Structure formats: structure tokens, C-alpha cells
């Protein structure tokens, strides 16, 4: 099952650090790892994974124990362009980056 988080207000470079940590893991392990990770992006990514788990379980596709993170991708979102005051009455650009995070879960078919 899939879930996505759009326009999360943190740069993709920082969110990718968290995504790389959980890629390919069982969902139980991933949720525990994200609970104890001291990164700002860990809470929204954890919530996104839990949403994907709920989507899979409610659709009757798989049990929670069988799910793993098949794919997690962090893409660049819109850039909010703001101005900040500079020296001598000038203004300097300030780019506030956003991220789109996609999660795809799959179940192991070992049987």
C-alpha cells in the first residue's frame, strides 16, 4: 500500500537522512527506530508509515507483521521565496524548501 506526504516544510536533503535509515526495513523495526531518532523529520515520516500500514490493513491486503518498506522516496517540493532585510536597506532572498515523501509498503511472500 501507499501513502504520501506533500509540502512538508523541511528541506529534502534533511528528510532523506531519515528516509535512508528505514528503507527496506520491517515496519515494526522502522517505527521503533523513528521513535528514538533525534531528527525533526522522524515524527512526520513515522506518522506517514503508520498511515500506510493502516491503509494496507484496512484494505485487507496484508497483516502488519508481514509488511516492509519496499520504497520510500523524498522529492523536492515547492520553494517558498521570501525576502529578509540586508545591509544598507537592501533585501536578500530566503528560500524555504519543502519536501514530498512517498512510501510504498509490500508484504513478504515467503510461504
From TrEMBL:
CDD domains found in the cross-reference section: Ribosomal_L22
Domain of life: Bacteria
Single annotated GO MF: rRNA binding
Single GO biological process annotation from the record: translation
UniProt keyword terms in alphabetical order: Ribonucleoprotein, Ribosomal protein, RNA-binding, rRNA-binding
A single Gene Ontology CC term: cytosolic large ribosomal subunit
Record carries keyword rRNA-binding: yes
Keyword RNA-binding: yes
Similarity annotation: Belongs to the universal ribosomal protein uL22 family.
Family annotation (HAMAP family): Ribosomal_uL22_B
PANTHER family: CHLOROPLAST 50S RIBOSOMAL PROTEIN L22-RELATED (PTHR13501), LARGE RIBOSOMAL SUBUNIT PROTEIN UL22M (PTHR13501:SF8)
Function comment: This protein binds specifically to 23S rRNA; its binding is stimulated by other ribosomal proteins, e.g., L4, L17, and L20. It is important during the early stages of 50S assembly. It makes multiple contacts with different domains of the 23S rRNA in the assembled 50S subunit and ribosome.
Complexes and interactors: Part of the 50S ribosomal subunit.
Protein's UniProt name: Large ribosomal subunit protein uL22
Native organism: Candidatus Vogelbacteria bacterium RIFOXYD1_FULL_51_18
